[in-house]
Structures are given as structure tokens and as C-alpha cells.
């Protein structure tokens, strides 16, 4: 590969890890692979702090490797820690259980060089090696399904500025499930493309034990968050089938009804409900047994777990829906709340965070609360700011204070009669919808009366943090109908207690 191509793409590799043995094989491949080496490899230790008193040992490979810590908060949080510490244009995510090819660095650069500006990400082709002398087990077929998924972050490279723009991974997804599809859907809705690369990465098949398929049903809780954020049609948009939750619910109701009928000595009802349960459970088990190796052990596992999966899946989905309903969010005004108010700010270099703004946002993120911004920007309508300049300022705010999960900006003037300009509630409502949060569980923090009025009209709560520019009657309004806080960290703590 020529030096011109080598210099065309700089990239950082981010590897979230729980300390699996394959990590060292992966790092060795990156250090000795053919092609341009990464600027840096960021290994994010996601072991719970209580279980990882000693630093994760990393080998000396002649490659810039830095260890970061995410405290066991899951792969979404670990990847966020990683890419926020990166300095390159591209960030390549690799899981710690994959096996890149020896020429992976060269193939990655080939995939990235020359991509159009609207391309936000490149995803690798995954290969799952299966035994050639028998049919795959249930666990192996589950791993094989990754090869059909659209946006698997086991090997995926993103432009860093795109991650800033959309707020990175949603840390409300606590496991390696749906967090990558959620990010990709948000990226595509922002008008960016995701392309298929030519590089190939091997993902060894998983083996999770007798009840692995039952434990995987925890993902149904994440499906509830996907529905809340992306609507009922999210599966089709992500290229997935309808799933089996409806049949699982029917089987669960049938099983419970049979038990209740037996307890009530209603034999006919018990027979009907029990027959339905047996039929649905048998159909599910056969569907799983037929493509497998059909050994006695595997068939026994499929029979037992096919009875356990429906109620487990339903229970996790119900818990997920409950968490979604209990979910909360905090939305900030921008000027004189998050950053100093510079009239018609168009220069990113002039962005200055307000005192303690970083502390307040960090308090909310540490509590797992998504944060967003709702801001009037009439400079667009007045011709004082271009959309490109506004985006540059937005990116700078994200760089200084960390990415916000949603930015709702009104580009209209006061006399345009738009529905979104505060004190109208539209931006607050849109932010809640985008975050998948009940508007009644949202708090808006701002510095003037229109922030308070927009929140209350939308049905959210409001906290006013006055500045020297806040008018006395606005403070009085907030004292009467909302909350007044002396500073942003106090406002953040009040928001955590009130949502």
C-alpha cells in the first residue's frame, strides 16, 4: 500500500473487554498485522470495579495501547469511554472475542479511504466457523445469526464527528444487544449512510451452557427500549423479522391458565389450556431441534428450554416496559445555561461552558440519565448564522461537555409563527419522543421564563437557574409553578430526585 493511502486515513481501535483470553491474540494481530497501524489502541476495561482490583495486564507489543476503565457498565458505556478518548477521524470498534485477519489493518484502510462525506460508518463482514462434521447447535446458530445482522459493532468503524453528532451509544442498553442497532438507526435518521466493507473478521461460535438460550431472553427488555425510541416498526427498519413474542405470550397465558384451572378443579378448561400450551411448546421445540445435531443432550436441552423461554421472555419484556415507563431525561437550554451567551454565536472557538455545567451533566450521566438540548437559534432565520456554523458550534459543545443524546434546535425567528420556538412545547416533546421517555418524566433546565413555560406546556417539569439576565418576574413565575435552583449541579440533583 502506498504512503499516500497510508496517510489518507488515521484511525483508533477501541476494544471493550471483560478480560477474555482472546484479547491478547487480538492485540497481537493488530501489532503485527499487515497495513497501516492504528494511531492508538484503547482497551476499555469493563470489569466491575469490585471484581477488578488489579489493572488489566496488557502486553508490550510495540503498539500504542492505552487502558481505560468503564466500571462494568456494559459495552455501550465502554465504547463511549473509548471513542471519547480518541483523537482520530475514524474509530474502529472490535469486540474482545473476534479474530481479525492478519491483513485487517490494510483492509480497514482500504474500506475507509475515499468514502463520501455522508458515509458515517463501515461495517465488516463476519464469518462464523462451524463444525463440518455435524449440524450446528443452538448456541452456534445464535452466533451465526450475527452474519445476517446489518450493523454489528463486533467490527465496525465510525466517523468520530458522527458519534459526537448523535450522542454515541445509548448507555441504557446494558448488554451487547441492540445498542449497535439503536446507534445505526439514529445515524441513518441523521441523514448519514452506513456501508458494507470488504474486510472479513472471524467470530468464534459461542457456547453458553445448558440454559444459555434462557439467559438470552434478557434482550427482550432491550426490545422494549427500541420500541419506545424508534416506534413499533423498528424491526422492519433494522431488517429483522417479527420475532416470537406474540407466540411466547400465548404459550405463557395458556400454561398459567392450565395451572389455575387445575387448582380450581376445572378439568375441561385445564385440558383445553394445557393442550394449547403443549402444542405451542412442542412446535417451538421442534423448530429448534430440526436444524441442530439432534443428539440426545441437545434435544433434551431444546425441550427443557423451549418450555422455559416463553414465560422468561415475557417477564423480561414486562420488566423492560416498566423500566421504559420509569425512564427519565433532562433537557437543557443552551445559551446562558450550558454555555455563555454570545449573540448569534457562529465561531466554535468562542464556546465557553457555564460555571459547573460539566459537573451537572456528569452527575446526570453517571446516574444513567440521558441528556439533551432544546434551544432557540433565530440567527439562522435572520441570516447571521449558517446551518454549517451552527453544526460546528454544536459539535464544540459536545466536545467540551460530552455528547448529548438529542439536539432540538429551532431555526425560526420570533415572528415566523413556527410551532417549535420556545415558549412553545414542540422541541421538548420531540426530545422526549426521540429519547423514548414519557414527557412527564422529563425535566427542562433553563435560565429564562420561556424555558419554564415550554416545559410546563409540554407536560414536563422545569427548573430555573437564574443568571444576571433573568428577569424578576421570570424568577417569580418559576417559584410559583416550577423550581428555582442556585446553580446547575443543584438543578441536576433536584432533577434526579424529581423524575
Automatic annotation (TrEMBL):
GO terms for molecular function: metal ion binding; phosphatase activity. This is D,D-heptose 1,7-bisphosphate phosphatase. GO terms for biological process: carbohydrate metabolic process. PANTHER family: D-GLYCERO-BETA-D-MANNO-HEPTOSE-1,7-BISPHOSPHATE 7-PHOSPHATASE. GO terms for cellular component: cytoplasm. Belongs to the GmhB family. Its main location: cytoplasm. Residues 12-129 form the Glycosyltransferase 2-like domain. It comes from Saccharomonospora viridis. It is found in: Cytoplasm. Keywords: Carbohydrate metabolism, Cytoplasm, Hydrolase, Metal-binding. It comes from the Bacteria. Pfam families: Glycos_transf_2, Hydrolase_like.
